[in-house]
Specification:
With about 200 residues, the chain is mostly beta strands. It is built from 1 helix and 16 strands. The strands form 4 sheets. Strands 1, 2, 3, 4 and 5 form a 5-stranded antiparallel β-sheet that branches. Strand 11 and strand 12 form a beta hairpin. The longest helix has 7 residues.
Amino acid sequence: MAYDIESDRMIYVRYIGSSTSLQTVSYDYNSDSYESKSSLDFSLSIDDIAVTYDSENDRVILAILKSDYVYFSTYDYNSDTWVLIDTNDTGDGNPVVGGLEHINIAYDTINNIILLTSSKNNNSDLYTYSYNLNTENFSLVNTLDAGVLYGTQDLVFINDNGNKWHVSTSGSDSNDGSEGSPFTTIQKGIDSASNGDTVLVASGT
C-alpha cells in the first residue's frame, strides 16, 4: 500500500495466490470508507509486488516480481488508470538476480528514481536496484550481506538534505534560525523554509 498525498487516500494493491489480476482499493480516513478502483491485468502469474508513491508526479508506482524479472507500472488515482511501463512479455522486463522471492520499493525524491530491495528466503544477501522511469534505466547498485533473512524487508526513503529551522521562546526573529540561535515565532520559521526543509518547534512555543 501507499499514501497518495495529493488525493489524501491510501492506495492498496493486492493479488491472491497465483492470480494475474491485481486489485486496487482506495481508503479515505475522513469518511472511513473503502472504494474499489480499476484493476491491472498481468499476463504472468506473480511472485511478489511492492508499492510506493511518487510525490513529484502524483502517481503510485507498482513493482511486480516474476521469474527473475521486475516490471513497473504507474497508477493515477484522479483518472483511475494504470499504465504498464514494461509489457507483459518476460523479455521486456528488468532482469534481477535469480531466485528472488521478496521485493520492496521506495521513491527517492532527491534523485527522482525508484529504489528497490530484493532478497531470497534463508539467504544473507540483500540486493538494491535503482530504476529511472523517464529513461527506463534499471541497474544493480549494491549488495549487502545482511545475515540470514526471513520474509520481507521494509524500505523507506528519508530526505535529510533539507535545512532545519529552529523556533524557541528564548529565540529572536533576528537570529539565523539555527539550533544555537533559534527564531522566536513559528511564522518566521515557515517564511524562512523552502520545499524539503523542516521547522523544529520547541515545547511551549
